[in-house]
User: Which sequence fits this backbone?
């Protein structure tokens, strides 16, 4: 189908849950995608951090192809070799001991919430159930996950929301300390609030949260759905802070483009789940785990994370140069290749459109924060190309406004 026909039929048959751009992407390779009209774009959205290895990475494609011809699904009533191999790989490269596989980040967060509550009730009794999260957080779109999310805009229209959540300002340890009560069982945080505006946790803050949880007998849940698996230049973002979570949620980059999520937990915490407590029909299926094995092995290969760190430094340096040239850029912040540029005017969507017209796909949070989530395989040359397009877009927007 031609692009206009695809867009027209999408408008006719799909629920209007997305504000889609007038593009129908049909092919991807590395850091680039092509639309149905044949236009090429440098992709600095990466499927919202899912395509961490770029599009159609050869190792992932090969793994999916081989597994699809062998066994696609058999259910978790049976042992699944790729699932066991993936679990071992994640455990051996983390500080946690056991894994539950699901299909998405929201499912991973749901499982983390259930596990924390089950653990707390077994250890302390039925009144321990509340989880404290941060304002401007984002934890997913299911009913419990949007309730855990500290942004009312995601919750409106879906009331009544499940009880048991409380919100405090991000990076405010005293507010968190004051919020802990007799019913509190866990604290759940993102090391970097991606959807909330690329807000990075202060080092003293996260270390203080870990100490607080230890003092009060609380679990620390880290939502690393967006930050985990190399995005920040470390395998997990919490490694930057020298802390260890009790529970961790993963997804996005895990499958190299294929849908899969996971929850990791310490042995003592994971033991709160017994057969029948939680399940996922498609979770950890052979095809998803084969893709994830290839993706994780690639990320863990010698030199990969060092390259991410190096390119991320180059990207931040180039954005700093733009900030000097364009006063509209108020702040550049982020960790690794999760970067935000906050503008001092609500022109983010206009800049995004100007970038798209010039062949660069970026993301916008609200009206004034540009978010960049390039694939982890992006090169310095591709970063330079993206920054040059962004500079042209900012110049055009400035001239248009004047």
Assistant:
């Amino acid at each position: 189908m031609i692009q206009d026909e695809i867009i027209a039929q999408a408008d006719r048959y799909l629920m209007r849950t997305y504000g889609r751009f007038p593009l129908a992407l049909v092919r991807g390779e590395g850091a680039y995608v092509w639309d149905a009209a044949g236009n090429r774009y440098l992709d600095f959205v990466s499927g919202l951090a899912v395509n961490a290895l770029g599009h159609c990475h050869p190792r992932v494609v090969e793994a999916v192809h081989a597994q699809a011809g062998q066994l696609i699904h058999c259910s978790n009533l049976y042992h699944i070799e790729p699932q066991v191999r993936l679990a071992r790989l994640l455990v051996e490269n983390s500080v946690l001991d056991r894994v539950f596989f699901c299909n998405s980040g929201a499912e991973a967060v749901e499982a983390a919430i259930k596990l924390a509550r089950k653990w707390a009730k077994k250890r302390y009794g039925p009144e321990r159930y509340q989880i404290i999260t941060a304002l401007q957080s984002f934890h997913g779109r299911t009913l419990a996950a949007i309730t855990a999310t500290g942004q009312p805009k995601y919750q409106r229209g879906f009331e009544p929301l499940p009880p048991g959540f409380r919100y405090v300002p991000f990076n405010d340890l005293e507010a968190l300390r004051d919020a802990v009560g007799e019913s509190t069982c866990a604290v759940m945080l993102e090391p970097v609030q991606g959807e909330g505006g690329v807000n990075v946790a202060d080092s003293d803050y996260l270390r203080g949260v870990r100490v607080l949880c230890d003092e009060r007998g609380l679990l620390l849940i880290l939502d690393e759905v967006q930050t985990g698996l190399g995005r920040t230049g470390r395998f997990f973002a919490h490694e930057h802070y020298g802390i260890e979570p009790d529970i961790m949620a993963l997804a996005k980059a895990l499958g190299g483009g294929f849908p899969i999520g996971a929850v990791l937990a310490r042995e003592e915490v994971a033991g709160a789940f017994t057969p029948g407590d939680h399940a996922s029909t498609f979770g950890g299926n052979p095809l998803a785990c084969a893709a994830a094995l290839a993706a994780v092995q690639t990320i863990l290969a010698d030199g990969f994370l060092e390259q991410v760190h190096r390119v991320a430094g180059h990207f931040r340096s180039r954005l700093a140069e733009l900030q000097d040239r364009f006063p509209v850029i108020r702040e550049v912040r982020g960790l690794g290749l999760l970067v935000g540029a906050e503008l001092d005017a609500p022109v983010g969507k206009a800049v995004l459109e100007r970038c798209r017209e010039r062949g660069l796909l970026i993301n916008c949070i609200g009206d004034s924060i540009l978010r960049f989530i390039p694939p982890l395989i992006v090169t310095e040359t591709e970063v330079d190309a993206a920054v040059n397009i962004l500079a042209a877009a900012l110049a055009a927007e400035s001239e248009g406004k004047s």
Summary: The domain at 3-56+303-401 is CATH 3.90.1150.10 (Aspartate Aminotransferase, domain 1).
